[in-house]
Amino acid sequence: MNSVGYINQFHSIFDKYKMKSTTKALMLMLLLLINLQSKAQGTIQLKSENIFQKNGFGNVHVNAIAQDRFGYIWLGTSEGLYKFDGYNLAAKQLNLDGKIFLNKNISNLFIDSKQNLWILNSETGLLRYNILNYKTDNFSSDRKNQNSLRNNHVVQMVEDNMGNYWIATTDGLDKLDIKINDKGEETYRFTHFISSFENSIPSNNVKCLLVDNNFIWIGTEDGLCKIETRTGNIEQHEEINFNNQKRSSIATISVNKQTHDIWIGTIDNGVWVLGKNVLGQMLFTEFIKPTMYNSKELNTILFDNNFNIWLGVNGGNVVKFNMKTQSSEEVDLQTAGGQKVNLMFRDASGVIWMAHE
Q1: CB atoms within 10 A of CB 33
Q2: Per-residue pLDDT averaged across 94-110, rounded?
Q3: Whole-angstrom Cα distance, residue 118 to residue 122?
Q4: Is residue 182 left, alpha or beta, with left meaning phi > 0 and alpha meaning psi from -120 to 50?
Q5: What order do you get walking across the sheet with 154-159 strand by strand?
Q6: Average pLDDT of 23-45?
Q7: Residue range 249-306, pLDDT digits in tens
Q8: What are phi and psi of 290, to 5 degrees?
Q9: Count of alpha carbons within 13 angstroms of residue 332, beta-carbon side
Q10: 271-276 and 261-266 strand pairing
């Protein structure tokens, strides 16, 4: 089915599950494993477990989840880094320059093709920890050095198909190229992309990134663009703006690997899909109107192997929509003590994890 074909059917279904925003935030963070058996009335019950309390830790705020090739789950939280082996949870302390490095307030995690765990932090920039040899080093901003991270407040990091890293910060986009010279020494070079440059990104406040073959999609607070990784050429995308007048603030970008559609969730202008129509033309189509949920910010879009789309709305619940059956179910967070979803993550076995407040 082409992406345009299931757009209209979803509008009436999603309308039943309009999200109610809430100002109440619980300090308790739970990691939830979804139980895919549903109740008859169209809601999904969760199998939940507070693995932090179970392992003797206090309440923490989970901001990021990643999985390495050995199957371990890494959790980035307000209190630092944790490693979960499926049974036990352990706080992970890293050694940097002979000292214990306490990396609190982790904003995101990323594992690259070399099995480096990159820890993103608003204070220290990028911390690289190699899971294989346990080596740790740091990349941070130095205003006196152009060949450094532009800003320490790093939001997201991705790796392109040539092994280069792209880093979203609140003050621009960085490209990090790491090479090994003839002496076997590692060298690195930062390239900065800022909105004041001609034909550059629409805003320095970069919120999300997505690798799409030879392109990097870049979502900012003031619009969407993509960059060709080999040439560095940037193409602006005005299609999802408000009547081509006001630019949309982009919250998340995801790809459906089954249909190869690009999904864009905005803060104030609904959800859009870039996919092929019946004629094979690539078009942007509005999937969800912003009036369909009160909080207006859809912060997570996740796909599973059963043609389901999981949509998490900031301040609300989660809706699972099946593209084949054109049906949807609401995830019941209330029964698990939750109020709103912060993030969703699908591990290598297909289990979907949720962190909620």
Answers
A1: 14
A2: 78
A3: 13
A4: alpha
A5: 154-159, 165-169, 172-180, 186-193
A6: 43
A7: 898 999 988 888 899 988 877 788 888 776 667 788 877 765 555 545 677 889 988 8
A8: -65, -25
A9: 15
A10: antiparallel
Q: Which of 97-111, 116-130, 149-163, 268-282 has the highest mean pLDDT?
A: 149-163
For residue 282 the two structure tokens come to 């690539």
Question: Coil, strand or helix: which one is 67?
Answer: strand
**Quick one: what percent of the chain has pLDDT higher than 90?**
36
The mean pLDDT value of the chain amounts to: 79
Q: Which amino acid is at 128?
A: R
Residue 248 carries which DSSP code?
P
Max avg pLDDT among 101-115, 287-301, 327-341: 101-115
Tokens of 296: 């207006």
Contact between 64 and 343 (Cβ < 8 Å): yes
The CA distance from 261 to 3, in Å, is 7
Contacts 24+ apart (CB under 8 A), 65-70: 65/109, 65/343, 65/345, 65/353, 65/355, 66/109, 66/110, 66/111, 66/117, 66/345, 67/111, 67/345, 67/347, 67/348, 68/111, 68/115, 68/117, 68/131, 69/115, 70/131
Cβ atoms of residues 234 and 227 within 8 Å: yes
Write down the pTM of the prediction. Answer: 0.85
At residue 13, the 3 state secondary structure works out as helix
Amino acid (one-letter) located at 191: T
